[in-house]
Design brief:
414 residues, alpha+beta, Cytochrome p450, 3-stranded antiparallel beta sheet, 18 helices
């Protein structure tokens, strides 16, 4: 794992591909045992090819909240976009989020973009979605209630959030299967080398443009109509920014929550004592959702940052232009903060988690994901007593999305 100079071979470790298996926790523990900030070899890093991975909570938060010294834009420190293909996946996917997106800019551009979009993501608006999310969850379980069996992924975890975000954005019901397919193509390409996805990505953006054009002609009460109309101090989202924002909201608005519902259900089935505790005490579900996010959240790592100045963290000298990646999953298992960090504890009250990031780039939709998770698990456990796996545990298979393994299917009986 380590090279003669003390760095970790990123190729051998497969840190950014998700191909380290469904249970990467022991590998992250080995990284933490090396240090809080570990040099990587074999990664396409900054100007000198230097790259680092941050493994512990304190240092992770330090990097993520300091956008002045750790930028998401490699060009600002003289590094070309080609840096990311070894870390972030294919060139097609990297380019998909490279224009007009909050993901790829820092202040002041980020403040402007997030400020405009945040007007449509108020706490009052989020809480107002609760009845509709509940109705969708019940509708999905109505379809399988009498069967006594279902695939949690296909019947619940995927359709619930895609229907919620589609309702929010005004995506017509007849278009949702195609949108889900485009989003799935994007998710499967993140965090791994997968060329040849230009066509679905282009179709995704073209669809967003058609949706915007329709809302300009026929505005309604949906989020796209609101984004089209939003102004702040005379500022608007440009057409490129608007399209980038809509595709990002469609994608991020359901992929992360689908992961939470599917993997969270499996965690409970693997820990029958915790499932019994939660079923008997549904008031614990919000804390259980946080624990599921901590234990195995939707992304193993952040997108890469680049040092804008020379800086020392945890005794390591990081130089201007160096690439820095925060291992969210590792920080969320930091033994200095969490007792038995690799065990599920639905009543855990220790510390916070970084599943949705930290700082200015923290996930805008995190409150929505938490709302959906709360309703999804409350409804599932209330309506499906005696929930259990319908296949042997070893028959469960995984695929890579968002640089973290996700379930192919989760057959259950009830």
């Amino acid at each position: 794992m380590s090279t003669p100079d003390g760095s970790v071979d990123v190729g051998a470790f497969s840190l950014f591909t998700g191909e380290h298996g469904a249970r990467p926790f022991s590998l992250y523990a080995r990284l933490r045992s090396i240090g809080a900030v570990v040099p990587l070899s074999g990664a396409t890093g900054g100007a000198r090819g230097r790259a680092w991975v941050v493994t512990r909570m304190e240092e992770a938060m330090q990097v993520l909240k300091d956008s002045a010294r750790f930028t998401v834009d490699p060009r600002s420190v003289g590094v070309g976009r080609a840096f990311g293909q070894a870390v972030s996946g294919s060139a097609d996917t990297t380019g998909f989020f490279s224009q007009g997106s909050m993901l790829t800019v820092d202040e002041p551009d980020h403040r402007r973009l997030r400020g405009l979009v945040s007007k449509a993501f108020t706490p009052r608006y989020m809480e107002g979605l609760r009845p509709r999310v509940q109705a969708i969850a019940d509708e999905l379980l109505d379809r399988v209630q009498r069967q006594g069996r279902m695939d949690v992924v296909e019947d619940y975890a995927l359709p619930l959030p895609i229907n919620v975000i589609s309702d929010m954005l005004g995506v017509p019901p007849e278009d949702r299967a195609q949108v889900r397919a485009w989003s799935g193509a994007l998710a499967s390409s993140l965090g791994r080398r997968q060329e040849g996805i230009s066509a679905p990505m282009r179709a995704f953006v073209e669809y967003a443009a058609q949706l915007v054009a329709e809302k300009r002609l026929h505005p309604a009460g949906d989020l796209v109509s609101r984004l089209v109309a939003i102004e702040a101090e005379g500022d608007r989202l440009s057409e490129v920014e608007l399209l980038s924002m809509i595709t990002l909201l469609i994608f991020a608005g359901h992929e992360t929550t689908s992961h939470l519902i599917a993997t969270g259900t499996l965690m409970l089935l693997e820990h029958p004592d915790q499932l019994a505790t939660l079923s008997a005490n549904p008031g614990l579900i919000p804390s259980a959702v946080e624990e599921m996010l901590r234990l195995n959240g939707p992304a193993s790592t952040t997108g890469p940052r680049f040092a804008t100045v020379d800086v020392e963290i945890a005794g390591q000298r990081i130089e201007k232009g160096d690439l820095v990646v925060v291992a969210l999953l590792s920080a969320n298992h930091d033994e200095t903060l969490f007792t038995e960090p690799e065990e599920l504890d639905v009543g855990r009250t220790q510390g916070r988690n970084l599943a949705f990031g930290h700082g200015i780039h923290a996930c805008l939709g995190a409150p929505l994901a938490r709302l959906e998770g709360d309703i999804a698990f409350t409804t599932l456990l209330r309506r499906m007593p005696d929930l259990r796996l319908a296949v042997p545990l070893e028959a469960i298979t995984w695929h890579v999305t968002l640089n973290n393994p996700s379930l192919d299917a989760l057959p259950v009986a009830f």
